[in-house]
Amino acid sequence: MLKPGPRNLITDVEGISVGNATDDKVETGVTVLRCDHAYVASADVRGGAPGTREIDVLSPENLVGRADAFVLTGGSVFGLAAADGAASALSVDGVGLKLSNKGPAIPIVPAAVLHDLANDGDKDWGETPPYRALGMEAARSAGAEFALGSIGAGRGAMAGLVKGGLGSASLMLESGVAVGALVAANPVGSVYMEDGETFHAWAYEIGDEFGGRKPPETRESAEPFPGESRLHMRFEAGANTTLAIVATNADLTNVETKRMAMMAHDGIARAIRPAHSPFDGDIVFAVATAKAELPSDPPPLRHGLVARIAAAASDCLTRAIARAVYEAAR
Hints:
This is Peptidase T4. One of its GO terms (molecular function) is aminopeptidase activity. It comes from Hyphococcus luteus. The chain is of the alpha+beta class. The protein has one domain (about 10-330): L-amino peptidase D-ALA esterase/amidase (4-Layer Sandwich), CATH 3.60.70.12. The chain is about 20% helix and about 25% strand. It contains four helices and eleven strands, in the order E-E-E-E-H-E-H-E-E-E-E-E-H-E-H. The chain has helices spanning about 80-90, 130-140, 255-270, 300-330, and strands at about 15-25, 30-45, 50-55, 65-75, 110-115, 160, 160-165, 165-170, 180-185, 240-250, 285-290. The strands form two sheets. Strands 1, 2, 3, 4, 5, 8, 9, 10 and 11 form a nine-stranded mixed beta sheet that branches. It has a two-stranded antiparallel sheet with strand order 6-7. The chain is globular. The two termini are about 30 Å apart.
């Protein structure tokens, strides 16, 4: 049986670190995943109301296809400024493209936002939303250890009718391949089964990482729109969203990281009902640090290994979503 890495965090994938910055007064925050180098990356958007920055630069047909950092943030459209702050902090450190001897380093920092503007935090910020400063703080605080729950991008999140949050999980595969997921869970859908207590993700739990609760022996028929979701009470485009990053230390290509991002969306669908609604901005970023080499030949063998890595990333994301809500409630 596969086991999590020593931290059970996405930072069990060598070459990445995570930092959080939280504004408790505003009830919002920012999470930044930093890369030790500009790693191969991709993104896949499935939600009907996304808010993003620098997604196209990761497309396989475009020039760069790499990222220096990723930003997950609250604040809806205002939160996009967090990527400006993170990019400024990275550039000062000399991180990014250097196209000539003149001018600053140019970091590639894809970002995605969730909507947390309707909570009880003080949003009377006038012309100075807090997100640029939070982005700088999160980028500068990145490390191997970080907290989960109501922190960073998960500070003001809701998961259906309960508190959402920040979650993470990892798996160690054979031959030294590591896989991990990081998520800011703010879905319109519910993470719970009909009893309102058992996570949809229960079958994927390792140990008691999100409480160890098993479903009841007798179950009612499942509702397409569970009572614990917000679909019964609020229909607002862009009002929700699950933001995720999956990572591996395998030397995947840009096309292969795209497939990993696509397959990882299954992890959202297993943990949340309904997922990818018109009201969510669900997105999965994928990054490969290339610390572990996969064979190139024969091609069917490599394709099978990529599929296994992507499936593990999907499982990590399922667990990370449940951990986000579990830790936020503690």
